[in-house]
Design brief:
This protein is of the alpha/beta class. It has a single domain, classed as TIM Barrel (Alpha-Beta Barrel), CATH 3.20.20. The chain contains 15 helices and 12 strands. An 8-stranded parallel β-barrel has the order 1-2-3-4-5-7-9-10, surrounded by 4 helices. It has a two-stranded parallel sheet with strand order 6-8. Strands 11-12 form a two-stranded antiparallel ribbon. Helix 7 packs parallel to helix 9. The longest helix has 29 residues. InterPro entries: GH, GH_1_N_CS, Glyco_hydro_1, Glyco_hydro_1_AS. One of its GO terms (cellular component) is cytosol. One of its GO terms (biological process) is carbohydrate catabolic process.
């Protein structure tokens, strides 16, 4: 039986999370421009195709399918979906704005009114149901025009375009949005830079010099966003967003312990240190030296980063990572997208993502001990294949078990003294998988009749987890 003596704080932000490119559809409507997600082909090979030399960031319908183009048609069905979120009792809804709805190419002088008006309608609908928007400014949705003509975030010019975009949405939605996130899973660029940084790695120079120069530009852009938020919406809060995976040593061999420490600091802490502490961490200097990285840092850059750190830390948690300095191919983890080796103590999802609820408590403690800032879990969930029974029911007990075990660890972390703001499980409604372009990899409490081949009615159905999560929210996490 769940221990109900350990409670979640009053005002805890229960909700769900999505991203514009994975559920909106309407990819050419409202004068929207092309973003990276729009040229992503469907299927398990999508990232491999996208990162292949010669990929032209064009749409080739003769060769590929493009599930993000329609996705689940939230663009036209947002009222129906928000009503379902409200029925579950959502206190907040973490979503993103598609940059190319506001600036179709990214470098226009004026924003696109049709795009601005669309999000006005979405925010108004959320507030009608008493749901607070939590908005990611950039969620794997960089304009293709900036990728092709500027080289993505390697170009310092992109910083100014991003600042213009930020000020446009802050000005428009200052009375409607009080929680903002800058870059989704900013550190994921270390594993898949095409999504977050806007370029692929074909050589060592791009892997090191190009990647970290792009990060420097994003850090400047993040600080400019914090500055603009504090000046334009003084009562709002703005945070960073980190893909966090606690890194374990395979054993107690000091060589492996040190290797795990180094790998974990680069992946989990580098971006967070800069955005939260306002300075480059000391450990990165040796890394730069060993990889011959020499950043172009302009006068005033470091002062800006120091002056405008984020207000809170949001993060995604799906898996932990186990490391060993000298590993064989056979030891390599199959599905953990951030690398590492198989952990013999953990089971994994059908897609190979290792399931580690206690790792979430470890994450919360590591984050809070290091930064002493409020934390917000804005992604966590289980991708699985769901079956619609003959009577129309979807009995996803495996999803309930996964979420229950993680929420129990959140409660333990709060008892540990961690300041936790809220929890928005990923894919609260089924949507297109970012990593594989599949609909069959489902996360939601709400089933959408859409399939990998593009067929389906788009009908929404409540899963068993819908009613379970509704009760979790209604009891503020007491009844799991």
């Amino acid at each position: 039986m769940a221990n109900t003596s350990k409670r979640f704080p009053q005002g805890f932000l229960w909700g769900g999370a999505t991203a514009a490119n994975q559920l909106e559809g309407g990819f050419h409507e409202g004068n929207k421009g092309l973003n990276i997600a729009d040229v992503l082909p469907g299927g398990k090979e999508r990232l491999k195709i996208l990162q292949s030399p010669g990929f032209d960031f064009e749409i080739h319908e003769d060769k590929y399918t493009y599930p993000n183009h329609e996705a689940i048609d939230f663009y036209h069905r947002y009222k129906e979906d928000i009503a379902l979120f409200a029925e579950m009792g959502f206190k907040c809804y973490r979503m993103s704005i598609a940059w190319t709805r506001i600036f179709p190419n990214g470098d226009e002088l004026e924003p696109n009114e049709e795009g601005l008006a669309f999000y006005d309608r979405v925010f108004d609908e959320l507030h009608k149901h008493g749901i607070e928007p939590v908005v990611t400014i950039s969620h794997y949705e960089m304009p293709v025009y900036l990728v092709k003509n500027y080289g993505g975030w390697r170009s310092r010019e992109v910083v100014a375009f991003f600042e213009k975009y930020v000020k446009a949405i802050f000005s428009r939605y200052k009375d409607k949005v009080k929680y903002w996130l800058t870059f989704n899973e900013i550190n994921s660029g270390l594993a898949m830079p095409i999504m977050g940084l806007g370029f692929s790695i074909y050589n060592e120079e791009d892997k090191y010099q190009g990647t970290f120069q792009a990060y420097h530009h994003q850090f400047i852009a993040s600080s400019l966003a914090v500055k603009a938020c504090h000046e334009m919406i003084p009562d709002a809060k703005i945070g960073c967003m980190i893909l966090y995976a606690p890194t374990y040593s395979y054993d107690c061999n000091p060589e492996n312990v040190m290797y795990a420490l180094q790998e974990g600091r680069i992946f989990n802490n580098f971006c967070a240190d800069v955005q939260v502490r306002g300075e480059y961490p000391t450990f990165i200097k040796r890394y730069f030296k060993e990889h011959n990285i020499n950043l172009d840092i302009q006068p005033g850059d470091l002062e800006l980063i120091k002056q405008y750190p984020v207000d809170f830390i949001s993060f995604s948690y799906y898996m932990s990572r186990t490391e060993k300095k000298h590993k064989t191919a056979a030891e390599q983890g199959d599905g953990n997208i951030i690398g590492g080796i198989k952990n013999p103590f953990l089971k994994a999802s059908e897609w190979g993502w290792e399931i580690d609820p206690i790792g979430l408590r470890i994450t919360l403690n590591e984050f809070y001990d290091r930064y002493r800032k409020p934390l917000f879990i804005v992604e966590n969930g289980l991708g699985a294949k769901d079956t619609v029974e003959a009577d129309g029911s979807i009995n996803d007990d495996y999803r309930i078990e996964y979420l229950r075990e993680h929420i129990e660890q959140m409660r333990e972390a709060i008892e540990d003294g961690v300041e936790l703001m809220g929890y928005t499980p990923w894919g609260c409604i089924d949507l297109v998988s970012a990593s594989t372009g599949e609909m069959s990899k489902r996360y939601g409490f709400i089933y959408v009749d859409k399939h990998d081949d593009g067929s389906g009615t788009l009908e929404r159905k409540k899963k068993k987890s819908f009613y379970w999560y509704k009760e979790v929210i209604a009891t503020n996490g007491e009844k799991l």
